[in-house]
Amino acid sequence: MTAFSMLHLSDTHLSARMDHFQRNNELMLEVLKNSTHDLIVHTGDITLDGIRHEDDFSFCRSFYETLDQHIHFIPGNHDVGDNPRLSRPAAENGSTIDDIRMRRYLDYYGEDRWRVDRERWLVLGINSLLVGSGLSREAEQNAWIAEQLADVEDRHLALFTHQPFFIDEPDPIDLSYWTVDPEGREALRFLMEHPRLRMIASGHLHQERLRSYGRTGLVWCPSIAFTTREKLVPEMGGQRQVGYLEHRFEDDGTVATTVCGHPGFQNSHLDDVIKVVYPFAG
């Protein structure tokens, strides 16, 4: 018996400053308006470059205000910033996460983590960019996660995060742009290895992939905005096609995931326009 359904989208990269990727998002908005899913989750990179342009946040908020449905958002690196060990600070026009960028996100979205209790499931959404950031909010989030897990009991656990916790296997893992910070992740090993964890769902990689590690499904949601070629994002076994996912959570702890698209979606590549939309990249 299906306990509940979810529409999962990610990496919309919205901005009023540029019309790149706008058509796909407009088509996705129609999908959202017609959604009958029990939950809608967005796993980050809502904005094109919210860390540098606050107008991206105001545009994104107004873009989704036409919906009657509630969307559970979590931030991506383009919304709050990147790992400090992989990026330059804001003072150098870099992309490092900091308290100011975090506060901006919270001003618009109110929270960067959430919990949903549904039937025999506990669903958590967390801010993966805090992992290894050293910000005080990282320790606060770790404590919050521990509090949520205290009453899982015999329910099933699903985790939504912008970045994957790992690609194929949890160990060993090196510091990279593609996954959460490995040193910061150690403080969350109790979450990653929780016996009731049945799903880790993420975005960030702009690829669709459905695999598993033990009893945990490793689900990568594709981007609505664009995909990439291998020169920009290395081969990791995913499908490079824009789209979104539908999940059906079952009472027995299984999740049936369907890859979805729209006939009007354009499968554009960031490689072709990166110097325009992200002039500070690299």
Provide structural commentary:
The strands form 2 sheets. This protein has a 6-stranded mixed β-sheet, with no helix packed on it. Strands 3-2-1-10-11 form a 5-stranded mixed β-sheet, with no helix packed on it. Helix 2 packs parallel to helix 4. The chain has 282 residues and is α/β, with parallel strands linked by helices. It has 8 helices and 11 strands. 38% of the residues are buried. The model has no long low-confidence stretch (mean pLDDT 97). The longest helix is centred in the middle third of the chain and has 14 residues.
What's the layout of helices and strands?
Layout: E1 2-9, H1 22-33, E2 39-42, H2 54-64, E3 72-73, H3 77-80, H4 99-109, E4 114-118, E5 121-125, H5 136-149, E6 156-160, H6 182-185, H7 189-192, E7 197-202, E8 209-213, E9 216-220, E10 244-250, E11 255-260, H8 274-277
Parallel strand pairs: 1-2, 2-3, 5-6, 6-7, 7-9
Antiparallel strand pairs: 1-10, 4-5, 8-9, 10-11
Helix pairs in contact: 2-4
